[in-house]
Amino acid sequence: MPATTRAAQRHTLVVLAVTQIVGTVGVGVAPSIGVLLAGEVTANPAWAGLARTASTLGAALFGLPLGALAARFGRRLALAGGWWAAAGGGALLVIAAQWDQIMCLFVGLLLIGAGSAVSLQARFAATDLAEPHHRARALALVVWVGTIGNVLGPNLGVPAQYMTSATGLTVYAGAFLIAAACLALAGTAVFVWLRPDPLLLLEKTTTTGPRPATARLRGGARRIFAEIRENPQARLAVVAIVTAQIVMVAIMTMAPVHVTNDGGSVTVVGITISLHIAGMYALSPLVGALADRAGHRATIAIGILVLLASLAAGIAEPDQMLWMTVSMILLGVGWSFVNVAGSALFSAVVSPERRASAQGGVDALSNLGGATAAFLAGPLLAATGFSALSAIAIVALLPLIGLLATRNSRAISPR
């Protein structure tokens, strides 16, 4: 790799790391405070799952457009635009929290989902200029630094309490005001500092000239399905990413509702979700190094085992706070193994002409699956309970386990 490209990769990782930390503070508020806000504004706890569906659906809806935007104009404009859209959603949620505006609640959560889409696409941006044997590590680094913001986000209610007397805002409104400011700052930082653009530099150094805009944009929604159909390695990666997201979102969505129904406070919910999110991101560098060294398939298999352990704890002792905490931490760790390894595998095998659009497509599929899981999790929890919901999540893992165990999957593994 030329020295100029290595320097550009180092600069890219620094910018992505800084903006991930700041932006994910705003994104991290949705899984806890956003869910609780929905129950308060609508006066119906069953709406909590629908609220989470709105933010996850927003991430799904923004995945493909942001991927197409990156393919046309580069990562800088796509990432900045996504952060700014999420900031607008945060501002709407301030209005929803302060004046109980249901329309602002759901539109705001839909828009703040763009922050999740950007956070996911930033991990792919980290691989654009990475050397092949360091691709998973670069991806994992960007995932890892999001730990700081994602752990702080669910606890924004704490500083918001101190803002109440000075601003007159409710605790929830204050939390979303902080979130909106962080999201706007992240967008501005990536827009100003992400130069040279890693995706455009990659295209410049690997092709004789830029591809026509129509070639980049045509059939964006079909590109991910073409990769899944034509490329068995990409198919395994996509199934892994989507399955992990479905299982994680279904359980994480209902954990705050289950804990509060058992008498847990907002503080307990914040701590539990923060520990879960720490599990999602804190070990990412080690997971990335393992994926580069031991292989993507082996790392995905480890993640599945950890997810099964998490769900078993949720089935056995759902009313014991200690076991719930253990279950949520393991849920995050298992997701990390499967998601990091699956994402690195996808980046390694996706065809260059489809890279940005297909990456946006896999994130859209992942978040659409998560949105569906969140929507169904609420009624399932109400009808059956947390243990049954965990058992259903185990069933959702079976197709991935079957695909990973097939001879074809073993044959295609790059490690």
UniProtKB/TrEMBL annotation:
<keyword id="KW-0812">Transmembrane</keyword>
<feature type="transmembrane region" description="Helical">
    <location>
        <begin position="298"/>
        <end position="316"/>
    </location>
</feature>
<feature type="domain" description="Major facilitator superfamily (MFS) profile">
    <location>
        <begin position="12"/>
        <end position="408"/>
    </location>
</feature>
<feature type="transmembrane region" description="Helical">
    <location>
        <begin position="138"/>
        <end position="157"/>
    </location>
</feature>
<feature type="transmembrane region" description="Helical">
    <location>
        <begin position="322"/>
        <end position="350"/>
    </location>
</feature>
<feature type="transmembrane region" description="Helical">
    <location>
        <begin position="236"/>
        <end position="255"/>
    </location>
</feature>
<feature type="transmembrane region" description="Helical">
    <location>
        <begin position="77"/>
        <end position="99"/>
    </location>
</feature>
<dbReference type="GO" id="GO:0022857">
    <property type="term" value="F:transmembrane transporter activity"/>
</dbReference>
<feature type="transmembrane region" description="Helical">
    <location>
        <begin position="169"/>
        <end position="194"/>
    </location>
</feature>
<dbReference type="GO" id="GO:0005886">
    <property type="term" value="C:plasma membrane"/>
</dbReference>
<dbReference type="InterPro" id="IPR036259">
    <property type="entry name" value="MFS_trans_sf"/>
</dbReference>
<keyword id="KW-1133">Transmembrane helix</keyword>
<feature type="transmembrane region" description="Helical">
    <location>
        <begin position="12"/>
        <end position="38"/>
    </location>
</feature>
<feature type="transmembrane region" description="Helical">
    <location>
        <begin position="105"/>
        <end position="126"/>
    </location>
</feature>
<feature type="transmembrane region" description="Helical">
    <location>
        <begin position="388"/>
        <end position="406"/>
    </location>
</feature>
<keyword id="KW-0472">Membrane</keyword>
<feature type="transmembrane region" description="Helical">
    <location>
        <begin position="50"/>
        <end position="70"/>
    </location>
</feature>
<dbReference type="InterPro" id="IPR020846">
    <property type="entry name" value="MFS_dom"/>
</dbReference>
<feature type="transmembrane region" description="Helical">
    <location>
        <begin position="267"/>
        <end position="291"/>
    </location>
</feature>
<dbReference type="Pfam" id="PF07690">
    <property type="entry name" value="MFS_1"/>
</dbReference>
<feature type="transmembrane region" description="Helical">
    <location>
        <begin position="362"/>
        <end position="382"/>
    </location>
</feature>
<protein>
    <submittedName>
        <fullName>MFS transporter</fullName>
    </submittedName>
</protein>
<dbReference type="InterPro" id="IPR011701">
    <property type="entry name" value="MFS"/>
</dbReference>
